[in-house]
Design goal:
Layout lengths: L12 E6 L4 E6 L6 E6 L2 E6 L4 E8 L1 H10 L2
Antiparallel strand pairs: 1-2, 2-5, 3-4, 4-5
Length: 73
């Protein structure tokens, strides 16, 4: 299996939360075009094939996830 580099230690992490859509976008380094790989349960891994690196994550339904966790479900 090929090893994936998630991000470099000194790389910045950018995030944006769309409250209306309830979606959290996280980018490792500056946001850039990437393919989305569905990791299941509303998590999408953003992968840049040109550099062979995970460059971000998208989490759908963040508010509902937090509510479930707080409720102990």
């Amino acid at each position: 299996m090929e090893t994936l580099t998630l991000f470099e230690k000194d790389q910045s992490v950018h995030w944006d939360y769309d409250e209306e859509a309830d979606v959290l976008y996280v980018s490792f380094g500056e946001p850039r075009p990437a393919i989305g790989i569905d990791a299941g349960d509303g998590v999408i891994v953003r992968y840049d094939e040109t550099v062979g690196r995970v460059v971000g994550l998208t989490v759908v339904g963040l508010r509902a996830r937090i509510a479930r966790e707080r409720a102990g479900v």
